[in-house]
Amino acid sequence: MNIKRVKAIAKKELKHVLRDKVLLLLLLIFPAFLISFFGYAINFDVQNIKLSVYDADKSSLSREFTEGLTASEYFDLSVYMLSSEEADSVLEHKEAAAAIVIPEGFNADIRNGKNTGVQILIDGVDANTANIIKNYLEGYVNVFNTQAMKDITALKGIELKVPLNYSPVFWYNPDLSTTYFLVPGLISMILLITGVISVSLTFVKEKEKSTIDQINVSPVTNGELITGKILPYIALSLIDAVIVVVLGYILFDAVVQGSYLQLFLSTLVFLMSCISLGLFVSVIADSQQVAFTVGTFITLLPSFILSGFIFQIESMPKFIQIITNITPAKFYNVILRAIYIRGVGWENFWPQIVYLLIFSGIFLFLSVKITQKKRAL
Amino acid sequence: MNSIVADNLTKKFGSFTSVDSVSFSVKQGEIFGFLGANGAGKSTTIKMLCGLLEPTSGDAAVGGYSIKKEADKVKTVIGYMSQRFSLYNDLTVGENINFFGGVYGLYGNSLKERREWILDIANLRGKENTLTGSLPGGVKQRLALGTAVIHRPEIVFLDEPTSGVDPVSRRSFWELIHSLSEEGTTVFVTTHYLEEAEFCSNIILIDAGRLIAEGNSKFLKSNYITNKIFEIRSPGLIELLDSAKKLPFVEDVSIFGNSIHLMVTSEIEEADDLKNRLESITGIKLTGIEVIPPSLEDVFIHLLEGKK
Ligand SMILES: Nc1ncnc2c1ncn2[C@@H]1O[C@H](COP(=O)(O)OP(=O)(O)OP(=O)(O)O)[C@@H](O)[C@H]1O
Ligand SMILES: [Mg+2]
What we know:
The structure holds two protein chains of two kinds. Chain A is mainly alpha-helical. Chain A has helices spanning 3-19, 21-41, 60-70, 86-92, 106-111, 127-155, 178-208, 211-216, 222-252, 260-284, 288-306, 318-323, 328-342, 350-376, and strands spanning 49-55, 75-80, 98-102, 119-122. In chain A, strand 1 (49-55), helix 3 and strand 2 form a beta-alpha-beta unit. Chain B is α/β, with parallel strands linked by helices. Chain B has ten helices and 14 strands. Chain B has helices spanning 42-49, 71-77, 93-103, 108-121, 137-148, 167-182, 217-224, 237-245, 271-282, 296-307, and strands spanning 2-13, 16-27, 31-35, 57-62, 65-66, 78-81, 155-159, 186-191, 202-207, 210-215, 229-233, 250-256, 259-264, 288-292. The chains are: A mainly alpha, B alpha/beta. The A-B interface holds A 2, 4-5, 7-9, 11-12, 15-16, 19-20, 209-211, 213-220, 375-377 and B 13, 47, 50-54, 72, 75-76, 78-80, 82, 84, 86-88, 90-91, 95, 98-105, 107, 148. Magnesium ion is lined by residues 42-43, 83, 159-160 of chain B.
């Protein structure tokens, strides 16, 4: 690797980028656009969920239970059912996203220290929302339980010290705010799209204009060429990442809990896989148009749908779960959430790092092999 | 001393043979003309010699290195100017020069010296900051030639450097090629302008991937043309051309500006004889006829027509 040659190439590439105002603007405005778009236009927060209730007990305690739920911003009472049989049809007709059936004797059982059950039905069509609703309700029931126990024992003149005070704090994402959850996901999506597309375009452009021939007859090696050409895009990608982090903080109070150094290093590893994917696209595509189309196709949708960014991978069918492995964004998302939200270190995501390295290796290898094949044709 | 020796160089794209067992040798410091019509296989040959394409079979030694086994070493002795303009249009003249200088490891004073030289030959002094894309065609080609030899290669390959360039610029471009050759650089140049072949010390002609003639201009003219060539003027030039093609005593005929060149079979010796025959058969009046020495163009037309 001759550093002087790499420098000459990087310098030239940087000039292309700086001179192409449209591309530059796109690369810098794209992240800002996405974060605002996802943050505001699409709000995945679970709020004002329609709740239907059948209260067979009609006691003060059962009313308290329902009111406690509907008083929160998360749930609105939409249907007051007259029998427990209605629950199915209410959910089916989308009149409510969840139905609660409080059995007769709810109050009496609790006062007598007996076990009682509340039946909760959740519309599971949207697995993601269902999951969040389930978490809310579980938390709520727990709080209610604790309170009820305290009240009962207090009536008997005993002050109850709860050994384990449960209050529903949602770990790693205390207010379950989707926007906060989205910031890491956005970073991976933006880096993947800009990385793959800009890298593939810059190489295909050299092919299309046959300027690549002029470089290929020189002593410049493939390694030098690739390194020199991608350096400016790595810098741009990192700037993009910084923009998202800063905007995430300004707009949504999203704070990086873990180590910035680990965030930086793992981002570099992820960028490597984006770049090798971009190289691969540039090798199989012969025009910028094809490269752009292929690049968009293999990054945009997978990083949106298959990466665990918006839809939970665990709640996908097994077959789709296997397919999700094709997008490096899935692995980077795990890393990002670990660093960003949980604030934990390497030991929690090294398998993902290894995967990204292997992924880069495979696509780099394929790119080189296909190029050699084409030359010998 | 030979700079390039091609030995049965062959390139196939699928079942199509683009270059078919071509062998030739190029002496050090000479201007070697590689001629052929569109699609004859000129670019494909050059790309193999530069290591951009692998030959399907055969080999060549460029600067003493095998293009098959020592492609990396070949790169150290050659310069290449591709058929398509391949400097960066969105970079300035100076940036292009600096980039290619950097690619060849030039820096500091040696880069500066070469930059000055290129600016001189391309007539771009004081225009370092002009965007390359905005330069006129002829200037672009000179700049491209300059950057192709920025590292003073022993051998330079020029693929149709003068195509699409106006005649004045073409002439000055050839002067530049000459000065390179005088400094000892071997120049391998392709063109489909047949008249440019006269500027070359040695020539090969290929057609459909096959080598069909080689030698210097004098040899080609005497060796491949034995019959007489007449230059004919007439008001009805096109009609005459069409009718003459079918005549048994006409070998080949082609249009040269406002006259036609007509090569006859050996039975015709005299201009008057030909004039009478043509006028009586075609009924078209000739205003002038004379025997001319064959030009290289006549040779090539004869060779290419003869193939068909
Ligand atoms: N990559 C390729 N795949 C298939 N066929 C090719 C390829 N490159 C060239 N050819 C074919 O090989 C033949 C020779 O092409 P080449 O470019 O060498 O011709 P040329 O003599 O340089 O012509 P021109 O004067 O048009 O530049 C052409 O018929 C061309 O279509
Ligand atoms: Mg060509």
